[in-house]
Each structure stands twice: as C-alpha cells, then as structure tokens.
Amino acid sequence: MNIFMRHLLVVDMGQDQTKQQIEKGLKLYQANQTDKALHVWIKVLEKTSDPGGKFRVLGCLITAHSEMGKYKEMLKYALAQIDTAREMEDPDYLTEGYLNLARSNEKLCDFQKTVSYCKTCLNMQGTTVSLQLNGQVCLSMGNAFLGLSVFQKALESYEKALRYAHNNDDKMLECRVCCSLGSFYVQLKDYEKALFFPCKAAELVNDYGKGWSLKYRAMSQYHMSVAYRKLERLPDAMECCEESMKIALQHGDRPLQALCLLNFADIHRCRKDVDKAFPRYESSMCIMTEIGNRLGQCQVYLGVGKCLLQQKELDKALDSLQRAQELAEALGTKLCSLKVHCLSEGIYRMKESQDELRDQVVKFLQCVEELELYCGMCGESIGEKNQQLQALPCSHIFHLKCLQNNGSKGCPKCRRSSMKPGFV
Ligand SMILES: [Zn+2]
Ligand SMILES: [Zn+2]
Predict the structure, then answer these.
(1) Ligand 1 centroid vs 407 CA: distance in angstroms?
(2) Which ligand is nearest to the CA of 392?
(3) Domains of the chain and CATH, by start
(4) How far is the centre of ligand 1, averaged over its atoms, from the C-alpha of 406 (Å)?
(5) Which CA distances in Å does 170 have to 13, 121, 144, 197, 201?
(6) Per-residue pLDDT reduced to its tens digit, 258-288
(7) Which ligand is nearest to the CA of 394?
(8) From ligand 2's centre to the CA of 105, what distance in Å?
(9) Fewest Cβ atoms closer than 10 Å to its Cβ: which of 13, 87, 163, 387?
C-alpha cells in the first residue's frame, strides 16, 4: 500500500467504521457527555463516504441539537439531511428527512412550514418503516395547528397520532401526545381534561418508562403543573414545576427550563407576588430568546403585561401587550392576539380612551369570529371560562352538557351521524 492509499483510508471512513463511530457517539451522549458525542459525530460527518451513515449521523445531530434547544443548528442539519435523502432517492429516508424538517420548523415556531412538511411526509409512498413515523408526523402537525390556533385540525391530528400510537404499541409517542393534549385543553379552558392527559402521560412514564430518558417524566410534570395552576391548586402546581425544573437543570434542557421559569412566574403572579414573578419572567425571556421560541416570548410578554396591570401600571402594561401582539401576528397565533385585545380593551376602558377602546373591541370580536370558538349546539363561547368540553369523532368540539342534552341527532356542525365520543 503506498502512502497515498493509506492517506485515503484515514480520511475516508468506510461503512463499518462510520457505524462504529456513530455508536461511540451515542454511548457518550447517553452518558451525558454531550460535547464529546457531538465532536465524534461531526468528525464522522466530515469523513464518511457512506450516504446511509451520513444520513444517520445527521439524525443524531438533529436530535441532540433539538434537546439542547439549539433550533437553528437543528434546522441546518435537517436541511443537510434532506439533501442526503434526495441524493439517495429512497422514500423511507425522504420521509424521515421531511419529518425532521417539520420538527425543526415547529421548534422555531414556523407553523405554516411545519404543516406543509408534515403533509409532504404523509404523501410519501414509503415502506412500513416510514409508516411507523406517521404517528410522529401527526403529532408535529397537531402542535403546529395548535400554534396557529386551528383547534379542530389540531385535535384531528392528535387523534390520528394517538391511533398510530395504539396500533404500534408506541408508549413514548402516546406520552408525548398526552402532553400536547394537555396544552390543547389548557388553551380551550377545559381544565379537567388539561390535567387528565398529562396525568395519563405521567402514568405511562411510571408503568413503561424505566428505560426512557427522564425528559418524559419532566415533560409530564411540567404539563401537570400548568393544569394545576389553572385549577388554582398552586401548591400542587409548585411541586410539579419544581420536579420538572430539577430534571431540566440536570439534563441541560434549556427549552424546558424556559417553560418552567415561565410557569413559576405565572404561579407567583396568581399569588399576586409580582416581586417574585418579574425576575422569573426575565430569566425565561432570556432563554426563550436564545433558543428562538417566539411563542414562548409572546407568552412572557402577556404574563408581564398582566403583572403590570395588577400594579396599575397601565401604560407599561400596554407596551408589553403591544410586543406580545407583534409576535402573535408574526406567528399567526390567533389565540394570543385575542388575549391581547381582551386585556387591552380593559385597560383602555380604565383609561377612558374611547377611540382605542372601540378599536380593541372590534379586533377582539374579529379574533373570536376567526377562531370559531363557540359551541355549535348552544351558540355560547368555548374557551372563555373553565367548562367541560367533548369532541365528536369529526373533531368538532362542544360543551359536554350540550352533547349530553342533544340525544343522538348527529354533529350540528358537519351533520355526520356518529355520536360516539372520540378518543379525546
Ligand atoms: Zn354548548
Ligand atoms: Zn362535526
């Protein structure tokens, strides 16, 4: 072997060596040696000539950066991965690549792009391998629709994801969908269901999660905490949030830390302890900005606005709400816009500024109409106060009491006959 050949062997990793090095990185990653793992993987990426190996190592890098909350890097690797999949022209690789693109965009709150990549995934004609990913695609699509406040489609996607989870006996997926359903029902203010689903997720972690990453436990505790806060069970909310934060800190999970800090701040706000709330909002905002969670930033501005309102700092409150509104508009999150207009309306009423008041009322009503947040049976609003809701198999949502009084006349919104309540 001449020197030139030997040089080639060093530079160009073959299939076996690639596989070995990826495994080595995984072991380091699981042992919480993230930096070392990333170093190994990036080396593989530079040196491998095997497209399958390149695809897989990009997958590792995508997952790791997602968990660290480095969403821009996550997107960068997802774009490289889809290029590799295109070169290989394999529908299974393409499906997985598009799923990772969807997820990166979901994390960066680019919800329209998320939906469109998810649709691409569902249209791919892959083998059973990619069919197994469909549940995760539906979950991501549900999260994106929830981000856009398109509630019926969000629920429809979550139901599909749950069905895939049941059919494939995929408890991790079921756990993640349950957490998302917690957020869904928090937004629609059915706080009983908002607590039920994350509790179910916590149960799954207890029953099946011995070998799972602790982040599943942390995630379910966080969602339980939010529901407890909404139910005004603040000590329970505090306890769950502390548990979640503890794990998030141990694992360097920045995205979850930001959410927990936001929730801590909200708990203190509910206790009327603004002095404790403000610094937590501030810390949360720092991380949300760093990782690029714009929806989180919008929620921080809303919380800060409510605190300032408690302190009767009307102009400062309006300022914070204005920032929330700019983000809500950019992201297409109509529910946040609705909340901003509702709060601003109250402030202008206090200030007796009639023109601005009228403007906010008009915008508020526009949001209500666009969101279709009313019960198709009684015509009253949904999501205005804590009320029990129930969805039909068509994913139209009604007050539970209205459905019970309706007998079996079918869905009044789409006239489908089946009245059997859906999964969720
Ligand atoms: Zn009703
Ligand atoms: Zn219907």
Answers:
(1) 13
(2) 2
(3) 172-250 (1.25.40.10), 374-424 (3.30.40.10)
(4) 10
(5) 35, 19, 21, 16, 13
(6) 999 999 999 999 999 999 999 999 999 999 9
(7) 2
(8) 30
(9) 87
